[in-house]
Amino acid sequence: MRAFTYQRVAATAEATAALARIPGAKLLAGGTNLLDLMKLEIEAPTHLIDIRDLDLARIEDTAAGGLRIGALVSNTDLASDARIKRHYPVISRAIVSGATGQLRNKASTAGNLLQRNRCPYFYDTDQPCNKRLPGSGCSAIDGASRGLAVIGTSSACIATYPGDLAVALRLLDAEIETVDAAGRTRTLPIADFHRLPGDTPQIETALQPSELITAVILPPPLGGRHFYLKVRDRASYAFALVSVAAVLHPDRTGRIAFGGVAPKPWRVEQAEAALQDSAEAVVSIAFDGATPTEQNAFKVPLAARALASVIARARESSDAV
Amino acid sequence: MPQSNMNPPAASGMTPVRFITVNGEQHSPPEDPRTTLLDFLREQLDLTGTKKGCDQGQCGACTVLVNGTRINACLTLAIMHVGDEVTTVEGLGKPDALHPLQRAFVTHDGYQCGYCTPGQICSVIGALAEIDRGVPSHVTGDLSAPMITTRLEMRERMSGNICRCGAYSNIQDAIAEFVGEPR
């Protein structure tokens, strides 16, 4: 691990000021992904700004009837919140389908959204990777690509966004609230938060250099039945090959988002009208233009089957899932 | 030498907390901020019960309790835990006064080599605390009902603790004895 200096801040403005002032500084919350990457020297911050003491660990009701989730709320606490369980169960289901109890206890809401990809070539520092070393090339396109993305990719990168929580948040059209070193706040839709790789796969989010995520805002509950089905190689503690987040209503309307298939949570709103028809119809629209590799072409039919399974569960019983 | 401003902020007039409390004893944090909590426990405090397996959060051998919550000690810096109370396996039981869960592991032969055992023990304690406060798992049926300690639930909740000897069935038996009837 490269040497760095460490600072524990008491106020958000102190954190953003340090972020703006110190080249190579990074914010530190749970640290589970950051420290893993620092050990491999894939991440090499010069300075860590520990934000654990900031007042960002609460879940509050909003005037609009939604919830404001503080950036430092742990994955465990978010999944366990009574309001989340009752009104946004897709969030609880998505969270507990990922990682382990130990990691979910440490991982924060905002940090989870910022976790880096799990492409094996991103982790292997002996191999070219345009995310890790821009311009060096992509080893994955002609390499081991079974777990990687099938849509939204570019000739520079086919890495998959690995998280589960963000897929549920995309389904719900959550917003990301930030503040920068000048004290400017903004909220942006989660749809615009994660970027597609294009020619600059090293830039993964819309977050600006001195910006700090303060909260994730949930709109009022959608009702309906919530599902998060994650298909993976092990029954527990594995990244998704394909995941499906869904809110389904008795009249066959609903929302669908996919994980494990693209560089960002993958939701194509126009595809949702096809819920009246079939899972295959939804997937054929949502994955229109997909460019899978030979190794991961299975993900498109797997997405259709996973969605068909969710739809079948929604129709066979009115029990909560 | 890396420099650190390790003191957490304190209300005016109060002395900032400067210590990491481990098994009830206060310790100054390491000088090098790169020191993980795991290395701090093992190399500097000589608390070698907590084990280093993968050192990347996949095996769970380093599981400790921080303020009663289980985490991977390998994926956190010691300096981040100034003001926290860390409990390792040494803080749960002693050779001549085993924790009831340790006793259950002995009774049921819940190990072969024993390397993963301290992490397993701490993880069970943490998992049961999570169940008590309504934390759901991937196999939980009704999110709103009280959480229960069935074998299926405990198996899922312990999936972050790998046993390369494969003593899982005996570990399950030990846990089942410790928790008693599913609650």
In short:
The complex is a heterodimer of chains A (321) and B (183). Chain A has 321 residues and is of the alpha+beta class.
Strand order of the largest sheet of chain B: 3-2-6-4-5
Distance between the termini of chain A: 44 Å
Average pLDDT reading of chain A = 97
Q: What is the topology, as strand order, of the major beta sheet of chain A? A: 4-5-8-6-7
How does the SSE layout of this entry go?
The complex is a heterodimer of chains A (321) and B (183).
Chain A lengths: L4 E4 L3 H10 L3 E4 L3 H8 L7 E4 L8 E3 L5 E4 L4 H6 L1 H6 L1 H8 L4 H6 L2 H5 L6 H4 L41 H7 L3 E5 L5 E5 L22 E7 L6 E7 L10 E7 L5 E6 L19 H8 L12 H18 L5
Parallel strand pairs in A: 1-3, 2-3
Antiparallel strand pairs in A: 4-5, 5-8, 6-7, 6-8, 9-10, 10-11
Helix pairs in contact in A: 5-9, 10-11
Chain B lengths: L3 E2 L14 E3 L2 E3 L9 H8 L18 E4 L2 E4 L12 E3 L1 H4 L7 H9 L8 H16 L18 H7 L10 H12 L4
Parallel strand pairs in B: 2-6
Antiparallel strand pairs in B: 2-3, 4-5, 4-6
Helix pairs in contact in B: 3-6
Q: Can you give a write-up of this model?
A:
The complex is a heterodimer of chains A (321) and B (183). Chain A is α+β, with helices and mostly antiparallel strands. Chain A is built from eleven helices and eleven strands. Chain A has helices at residues 12-21, 32-39, 75-80, 82-87, 89-96, 101-106, 109-113, 120-123, 165-171, 279-286, 299-316; strands at 5-8, 25-28, 47-50, 59-61, 67-70, 175-179, 185-189, 212-218, 225-231, 242-248, 254-259. In chain A, the strands form three sheets. A five-stranded antiparallel beta sheet of chain A has the order 4-5-8-6-7. In chain A, strands 1-3-2 form a three-stranded parallel beta sheet, with helices on one face. Chain B folds into two domains: 20-91, Roll (Ubiquitin-like (UB roll)), CATH 3.10.20.30; 100-179, Orthogonal Bundle (DNA polymerase, domain 1). In chain B, a hairpin with a 2-residue loop joins strand 2 (20-22) and strand 3 (25-27). The model of chain B has no long low-confidence stretch (mean pLDDT 93).
